[in-house]
Amino acid sequence: DTAVSQTPKYLVTQMGNDKSIKCEQNLGHDTMYWYKQDSKKFLKIMFSYNNKELIINETVPNRFSPKSPDKAHLNLHINSLELGDSAVYFCASSPTGGYQETQYFGPGTRLLVL
Amino acid sequence: GQNIDQPTEMTATEGAIVQINCTYQTSGFNGLFWYQQHAGEAPTFLSYNVLDGLEEKGRFSSFLSRSKGYSYLLLKELQMKDSASYLCAAMNQAGTALIFGKGTTLSVSS
Question: Do A48 and B102 touch (CB under 8 A)?
Answer without folding.
Answer: no
